[in-house]
Amino acid sequence: MMQWIERTLKSPAIVVGVAGFFIAAMVFLVRLDTDVRHLQNDVRHLQDDVAGLQTSVSELQVSVSEIKANQQRILDSLENIELALGNHVHDADGTVRFALPSN
Q1: Each residue's pLDDT tens digit, 14-64
Q2: 88 near 96, Cβ under 8 Å?
Q3: Reduced 3-state DSSP string for the chain
Q4: Per DSSP, what are the bridge partners of residue 98?
Q5: Confidence (pTM)
């Protein structure tokens, strides 16, 4: 076994090939590390964007709830106006009288 290692180390082609392999492996690992760091930064930015969107959605939901409540108030007011218009009488002098429901 030792003779094989000695013969292998004496061959310049094998030494260059092994050194080339280690250099290529190191370059690959450095590039992989750089790519992973870039991806982690992208993920952080995406998480920040998602958090901002979640905040915006929450604010929008509150606004929609307020709009619904205001719409319901408007509908209730319109219904009251409709009832008032249907349940009134004009006297000869133009005054308005509302008929009271009988008990």
Answers
A1: 888 888 999 999 999 999 999 999 999 999 999 999 999 999 999 999 999
A2: yes
A3: CHHHHHHHHHCHHHHHHHHHHHHHHHHHHHHHHHHHHHHHHHHHHHHHHHHHHHHHHHHHHHHHHHHHHHHHHHHHHHHHHHHHHHCEEECCCCCEEECCCCC
A4: 88
A5: 0.52
